[in-house]
Specification:
Number of helices: 2
Order of helices and strands: EHHEEEE
Strand content: 35-45%
Number of strands: 5
Structural class: alpha+beta
Strand order of the largest sheet: 1-5-4-3-2
Radius of gyration: 12 Å
Distance between the termini: 33 Å
Largest sheet: 5 strands, mixed
């Protein structure tokens, strides 16, 4: 199963101005998640659809997996580098 990805407006806003190394790492990690969306830590104990994962050396992204629609929605991107 291959998932589609959508970016919430807040994630798009947070991605503006990311350095190239951060954007490359974000894209690479997102490509991995398309194939294995559950390869990330649950964000909430009682709702495992919400996940978080790192990208690159200094990035964290938060996303929701909708298994029925085969959709990953990235809603928060943080880069501390």
């Amino acid at each position: 199963m291959t998932y589609r990805v959508t970016l919430h407006v807040s994630a798009l806003s947070q991605m503006q101005g990311l350095p190239e190394v951060a954007l490359d790492a974000l894209i690479a990690r997102t490509a991995d998640l398309i194939k294995e969306p559950w390869d990330a830590r649950p964000l909430y104990r009682d709702d495992p659809d919400f996940r978080m994962t790192t990208f690159g050396d200094f990035g964290v992204m938060y996303f929701k997996v909708d298994e029925g629609r085969e959709l990953i929605t990235i809603f928060n991107v943080t880069w501390a580098g």
